[in-house]
Amino acid sequence: ARDEELWRLACVKVWGLSIGTLDAQDAENSTVYYSWRDMFIRRERVNFSGCYISKTTYLRMGENSFQDQFYRPVQLVEYYRYIRFMPDGKVLMMTSADEPSQGVTKIRNVHNIRPDVLRGRYRLFGDTVTLVLQKSSQSRATTGHVRQRRGSVMPLDEDSNATQFLIELRIGHSPKRRCAQLIWSHYTLVQKRNKVDTSSEFDLTDAKYPSLWFSPVKSYHLDADSPLV
């Protein structure tokens, strides 16, 4: 278990082409790692064997009653946001009113993505993870053919009229688990219409965009714990 080649392969699985070398990994902090195992333990990364989940709750005022103008209902709105990372650089994000026990099952099958799930790719830069997402296509006519080989969920061709979601999250830690928290840093919506891009930024308040916390999911282990090659 202390074999350095095994730990190097584990690091390649997490950081891919941006793995770098053991010395001066982080340009900002000039972090030096003494072994590949040391890098895997101390370097910020995302967890694959589960899902990052946040819960948003807010009050919404309803309309006045026709019979009693002084009566106005207040609605309690609750929904969850799910983000799942995979070792091959792909990421899925979904917003749903479903409780986590049901919500995680909707992004379990990476080969049959639901239309309400955003999919894309991510990259790690120090303690920051960047995501580029777009809506799942409902028909092949709009996005071209989809790869059928295992692990591929990205379309081959991009839609000329597409909507992309550009997200930056900072990796945090909990007292019991490293890299268990994702904190919102930046969220931009880019709409492409007739080859013209229009962008708008979201207001990242804690009430609307609370931190996401990692939760292990047993059914994800088949993809997360695939053999090191």
TrEMBL record:
Coiled-coil annotated residue ranges, if any: none
Sequence ranges assigned to domain F-box protein Hrt3/FBXO9 C-terminal in this UniProt record: 34-149
Matches recorded under InterPro entries: Hrt3/FBXO9_C
GO aspect biological process, one term: SCF-dependent proteasomal ubiquitin-dependent protein catabolic process
Keyword line: Ubl conjugation pathway
Entry annotated with the keyword Thylakoid: no
UniProt GO cellular component terms: cytoplasm; SCF ubiquitin ligase complex
Pfam families referenced in this protein's UniProt entry, alphabetically: FBO_C
Name the record gives this protein: F-box protein Hrt3/FBXO9 C-terminal domain-containing protein
The UniProt record lists the keyword GTP-binding: no
